[in-house]
Amino acid sequence: MKKHLFLIGGASGCGKTAICQMLAGTMGKVICLDGDSL
């Protein structure tokens, strides 16, 4: 199975989390990492 890596960046409140959640809904197994939490 081919793996993908998406790096999503942007200003606060621009929808990064929403995009990650949409990817999880369409692609299945998705891991979202928040750089502020690392």
TrEMBL record:
Residue span(s) of domain Zeta toxin: 3-38
EC number(s) per entry: 2.7.1.176
Nucleotide-binding keyword on record: yes
Catalytic activity: UDP-N-acetyl-alpha-D-glucosamine + ATP = UDP-N-acetyl-alpha-D-glucosamine 3'-phosphate + ADP + H(+)
SUPFAM superfamilies: P-loop containing nucleoside triphosphate hydrolases
Record-linked InterPro entries: P-loop_NTPase (IPR027417), Zeta_toxin_domain (IPR010488)
Pfam families on file: Zeta_toxin (PF06414)
Keyword vocabulary terms for this entry: ATP-binding, Nucleotide-binding
Molecular function GO terms recorded: ATP binding; kinase activity
Protein family per UniProt: Belongs to the zeta toxin family.
Name used for this protein in its record: UDP-N-acetylglucosamine kinase
Naturally occurring in which organism (per UniProt): Anaerofilum hominis
Highest classification ranks of the organism: Bacteria, Bacillati, Bacillota, Clostridia, Eubacteriales
